Amino acid sequence: MSEVQVSEAEIAVHWQEEGYFYPPAKFIGQANANDPAIRERFAEKNFPECFKEYADLLTWDKYWHTTLDTSKAPFWKWFVGGKLNASFNCVDRHLAKYRNKAAFVWVPEPEDQVTQAITYQELYRRVNEMAALLRDYCGLKTGDRVTLHLPMVPDLPVTMLACARLGVIHSEVFGGFSGAACGGRIADSQSKILITMDAYYRNGELLDHKVKADEALAVAEKEGQKVDKVLIWQRHAGTYSSKTPMVKGRDFIVNDVLQEYKGKIVEPVSMPAEAPLFLMYTSGTTAKPKGAQHSTGGYLSYVAGTSKYYQDIHPEDTYWCFADIGWITGHSYIVYGPLALAATSVMYEGVPTYPDPGRPWRIAERLGVNIFHTAPTTIRMLRKLGPDEPKKYNYHFKHMTTVGEPIEPEVWRWYHHSVGKDEAVIVDTWWQTENGGFLCSTLPAFDKMKPGSAGPPVLGIYPTILDEQGNEVPRGSGKAGNICIRNPWPGIFQTVWGDPDRFVSTYYAKYNKKKDSTDWRDWPYFAGDGALQAEDGYFRILGRVDDVINVAGHRLGTKELESAALTVDEIAEAAAVPVIDDTRGRAVEMYIALKPGLKPDKQIEDKVSAAIDKLIGKIARPKNVWIVPDMPKTRSGKIMRRVIAGISNFTSPGDITTLANPEIVETIKHHVESEKVKSGQTPRELSQAEMEEIKAFGRVE
Ligand code: PRX
Fold first, then answer.
1. What digits encode the pLDDT tens for the residues 153-194?
2. What separation in Å is there between the alpha carbon of 527 and the centre of ligand 1?
3. How would you classify the pairing of strands 229-233 and 205-208?
4. Radius of gyration for the chain, computed over Cα atoms and rounded to the nearest angstrom
5. Neighbour-count burial for 345-382, b at 16+ CB within 10 Å, e otherwise
6. Using one digit for the tens of pLDDT, what is the confidence trace for 334-365?
7. Apex CA 354: angle with CA 349 and CA 358, to 5°?
8. Which of 405, 411, 427, 554 to mutate to test the pocket of ligand 1 (most atoms within 8 A of CB)?
């Protein structure tokens, strides 16, 4: 098997199309999008005006005059002239009708701790008090950036909405990221305030989180950014649950300071539609993560519209998106989209399998959840550890989502049959941090579902698949190419924070032929994913074509991983590659070459893992660290990652004739394969999509 080269033509022959599933009649009857004319309304001939339908879901202080301004292409401006406030749209405007309805239902990880329902009235109070604190105690004003490093607690959306109320740009860093990773983001966004928490529960343990704040500040300062205040929420109000000392004059307990702001009301600041709402850092091809800057009006319209039509949220539903707010999915589909629609949004603090893999279904049963949204990595884990758990619980989902990675058809079918009890419609939503909201998905009441395929483009999105030369790869050809979006849409990010050139070069330069053009048709958005389009028009996403590894639905840049490894003294060179993993989708394997004269040693391998934990976070910890005598390199000295990726996955390393040192391949292969066999890591046979991905890995080099 390992030496077979699979050509694209062969894939066309062997590609197996999956059978369709159909939306249940009960779902169709109640769906928000149930008028067949909807497709026509969003047809290309009605672009960009079609997006008025999404903007009209919001309450504008001043109505906009221009739907789309392309004069500074590709820096698109949506709903120009309009003014609004995101916090008002997500909270205040619902008070008249839904004052006493739960906005959030928060489930702590320890099962003996009480679930909290936060009504829209209570949310209104908390957001106002926090906004008063941010403005009057921290001196924050419109346009300032503030970094949040908060876990899955209600204080996180309260803080985000308080920032939004003032027009302060929040930049939430996933709680699982290390202090150093947070510090880099503080420096890049020039935040003077860090908002964090003393501790939180994860897998049964109360983790010290404040310790990361001290590391973050040290790193930020080294990068030239001084933080004035660290605000610390308490996981158990009234008790400081961290062992890390407070720094006098710098660290403050939010819960205490808030006492001074009890009952304070802060008028929402009316923001221009194009004012930035938040930054969300994501990994790319360079060592430094980039801050995707999202707008207020366009973003909020897009997440409200897609939450309504694709998540099918009605105010009377109980909606649970089981993601972390520290990622874009949580921003768009736990906080902003659902709240814009007056939803009841469930938040869960912990891991899916704590204390056992029946936990999610107990939560669903207890709270009457009827819309469920999660990632393949969680689905795989629950399927592996508790395949029969769902049937023990009496819950009923009308709608389920999978997002973040390609889902294997068998896993999709388990999700449909076991989790969904054959009653729920499923949407497989493809999109990215940069996109604000969904790009491909079936429209739940109309489209048949095909396991493993994201489906057609969503309303108002017109994708195409292009080859390296920019020619369109026809549908049904069985050939893969780069998926691009031909048009702008309201949820697209505005720029890379502080680096507009990188914004253009990464996402638009590849297929743009006229640099000065102000016609959107000249600026296809390059998503960085390989995909193919079947005869029926459905898109199947294969994975990243750049140096990004998608671990458990989280993007990690190879350069970030490699620079972390290179902080270990003994290391001369490092290369990170993906390895197919049955639970996490992909895991990281690290190849390292030592400085001259040094001998391979287990301690060096451990140091590499520790450095990655410290500089990025535990999610990035490599599955294996391989010390090799040399890296396979091109004649110009570039490491050929696809060759080692092939070895790590027991598949063909591909063409090695262009290498400067082809003989090294056999040495590495022998070492890695025999070690893997010894430790029981022989892989299953890879699917064609997986083989394609490995073969293409790092081809952008
Ligand atoms: O490779 C695609 C994969 O996740 C990448 C985006 O990751 P991130 O910015 O972290 O956002 C994740 C949540 C939106 C994409 O480039 N991806 C995302 N959704 C899917 C997917 N791959 C296949 N199918 C999906 N539904």
1. 999 999 999 999 999 999 999 999 999 999 999 999 999 999
2. 10
3. unpaired
4. 25
5. bbbbbbebbbeebbbbbbbbbebebbbbbbbbbbbbbb
6. 999 999 999 999 999 999 999 999 999 999 99
7. 110
8. 405
